[in-house]
Amino acid sequence: MHPNPAFRKAGIEAALAVARNRAFGQLILNGEDGPTVSHIPFLIAPDAVSLDLHLVRSNPILRLLETPQAALITVSGPDGYVSPDWYETPDQVPTWNYVAIHLRGSLSVLPQGDMHEMLERQSAAYETRLDKVPWTTAKMTPDALARLMRQIVPCRMKIETVDSTFKLNQNKPDDVRLKAAAQIASGGIGTELEALAALMRDPPA
């Protein structure tokens, strides 16, 4: 997380809102040979006490989960390069604005029998965002579904801490930040630039 407190003022609810919307991140555990990382979709519980995810059975992280393990999930929001010229004020340097969320907690394997229900919940959370009749496991043949269920393993992380950085030029005067936001919105280098510009105009507090 960025050390500047100007970028660390957003509350837990703002951070969780980004994480819920993204629903995808990097799962990181300490392995015998160093950090082990998997890129995973996840579903945060309504009370934000835990989140659910699943791993393919061959994932090396599962070998670490004979007992619950400390884990970190990092979630990236929109990001983009900011040119010093955009501030229209002297003595500025280039920077990169971004949103990042860190979810820490204890990760454990759930009973295999929980996998079907978890898959239904996860897919429903994503499918309902789409403009179509939601997909459900009922569309699969029983044999194909059974094969899928054997290949993936349900896991749950108890969420212990939620940290966030919303680096949106809050350390600049409002008019300077808004000038940079306007340039970001017109196109540049980064991802989801329109979303980043919107956050720069109205940073969460």
Kindly describe this structure:
This protein has 205 residues and is α+β, with helices and mostly antiparallel strands. Helix content is 27%, strand content 35%. The chain is built from 5 helices and 8 strands, in the order αββββββααβαβα. It has helices spanning 12-22, 115-127, 142-151, 174-185, 193-201; strands spanning 24-31, 34-41, 43-44, 50-56, 69-82, 95-109, 152-167, 190-191. Strands 1, 2, 3, 4, 5, 6, 7 and 8 form an 8-stranded antiparallel beta sheet that branches. β1 and β2 (34-41) form a beta hairpin. α4 (174-185) packs antiparallel against α5 (193-201). The chain is elongated, with a radius of gyration of 20 Å. The chain starts with 11 loop residues before the first helix and ends with a helix. The mean pLDDT is 96.
